[in-house]
Write a structure and sequence with these properties.
Radius of gyration: 24 Å
Number of helices: 2
Number of domains: 2
Largest sheet: 12 strands, mixed
Strand order of the largest sheet: 3-2-5-6-25-24-27-28-20-19-16-17
Distance between the termini: 16 Å
Length: 431
């Protein structure tokens, strides 16, 4: 299966409604679906009003689709995305929610191709304690990173970093690591408003004040849970949402208590996001928690409780029925069901409001509306059922946009995982 994580969560966006007179405006009477297909890989889309039948949309050149709820509050939208990479399976994304929870859903089939230029950054790291020839300087921006080798000449330690980056003015995160890329880095600094242009260059010299003391991350496990694997990472994101990268992290049992390097020059609008994961053969627990970028203080987080043993039942079908959707937590916001084999990825995001008091859900067969081939009876289908927990309405989160991850972000994901053959006979229980 693909790595389970927030970046695999359904790409959603919520149109904020502006209140007036101190009150809350009513939910809209229509829904607008936006499909992002910047690379024109192709897709098909459909919708559902209330509990009615699913209807295919007529393709639109604007990639937006609006339909009336006709007095209903519940709705569904679905998109089958063709693969971006030839040979990969198509992906079906289904969202079922209420108009109060999510008025304008967005599903991304393909993102824009990056336009990059070459730029050179000269970095003097002589003042970094413990610096050695062979260390590395890593420069990150907008999801791209480049590395330069530290060399020594005349007692000065420098690195020439040849960046491949998107053009324009942006923050850069510069970290200094040893030759093994060990974490936390020896130093971390944000460079503000660097104008990246083709063939351009600039320089920076680390000062002694750029090397901030390490801070700590503490991860608490649920009582009685003994994971067989785990990892945790600390990401830094600058206020312009362009300068970001890893400033701490580890794997295994050490992921319960480790250090990260606060970023020199960080301030208002900057933030850290800790991602912690622990799991065993049938459970994966995740939490994403933000912290102020100006604090550089200890970050403590507790992982959520796993699903109770054998609390979920899944029928052995290509479009299964899932029973037991009753994860007990007051911050429950949604469930996610993901099915996958080598021929198809099928993902459902099911809001708490849409499900209501029900605890059983049948994955809809949209093969005729979206023209995909369901899982074959002899295939092995990997399944993950996830409870999504947060004090905030996470349906307004766009997981492709770093701006969605703020200092107050706090989201937990509780996965139960297994696999089955869709023979049409019997069921499985998990975790």
């Amino acid at each position: 299966m693909r790595t389970i994580g927030l970046l695999g969560f359904a790409v959603l966006a919520l149109l904020g409604l502006v209140g007036c007179g101190g009150g809350t405006p009513p939910p809209p009477g229509s829904i607008t679906l936006t499909v992002i297909d910047s690379q024109n890989v192709g897709y098909a889309a459909a919708y559902q009003v209330g509990s009615g039948s699913w209807t295919a949309f007529t393709p639109s050149s604007t990639h937006t689709y609006t339909f009336s709820l006709g007095g209903n509050t519940k709705y569904g939208v679905a998109v089958r995305c063709n693969p971006v990479v030839p040979g990969n399976p198509p992906e079906v994304h289904v969202i079922q929610a209420t108009n109060a929870e999510l008025a304008n859903p967005k599903i991304t089939c393909s993102s824009p191709s990056l336009s990059t230029v070459n730029y050179t950054l000269n970095v003097d790291v002589t003042n970094v304690p413990g610096i050695a020839s062979g260390d590395r300087v890593v420069v990150s921006s907008q999801g791209l990173s480049s590395t330069g080798l530290v060399t020594v000449s005349g007692g000065n330690y420098t690195a020439l970093v040849n960046l491949t980056a998107q053009p324009g003015t942006q923050d850069l995160l510069v970290v200094v690591v040893d030759s093994s890329f060990s974490l936390p880095p020896k130093a971390a600094k944000v460079l503000r408003s660097v104008n990246i242009s083709s063939g351009g260059s600039s320089s920076y010299t680390f000062t002694a004040s750029d090397v901030l003391a390490p801070a700590n991350v503490s991860v608490n496990l649920p009582s009685g849970f003994s994971p067989t694997f785990g990892d945790a990472w600390v990401f830094y994101l600058s206020t312009d949402n362009k300068g970001w990268g890893i400033v701490g992290g580890t794997t295994g049992t050490s992921a319960l208590n480790f250090s990260y390097r606060p970023v020199a020059g960080s301030g208002s609008g900057d933030r850290y996001v800790v991602m912690a994961v622990a799991g065993d053969s049938s459970n994966v627990l995740e939490r994403f928690k933000g912290a102020s970028g100006s604090s550089g203080s200890t970050i403590t987080l507790a992982l959520p409780n796993p699903w109770p043993a054998n609390s979920l039942t899944v029928t052995r079908q290509a479009h299964p029925t899932v029973s037991g959707l009753s994860y007990a937590d007051p911050s429950l916001k949604a469930y996610q069901i993901e099915l996958e084999d080598s021929t198809l990825i099928y993902q459902v995001t099911l809001s708490k409001g849409w499900l209501g008091n029900a605890t059983t859900y049948t994955v809809p067969d949209l093969s005729s509306q979206l023209t995909y081939t369901p899982f074959a009876s002899g295939s092995t289908v990997h399944i993950s059922i996830t409870a999504v927990l947060s004090a905030a309405n996470v349906l307004n989160l766009d997981s492709n946009d770093p701006a969605s991850f703020g200092a107050t972000t706090d989201i937990s994901l509780v996965h139960a995982t297994d696999q089955y053959t869709p023979s049409g006979i019997g069921s499985i229980q998990l975790p």
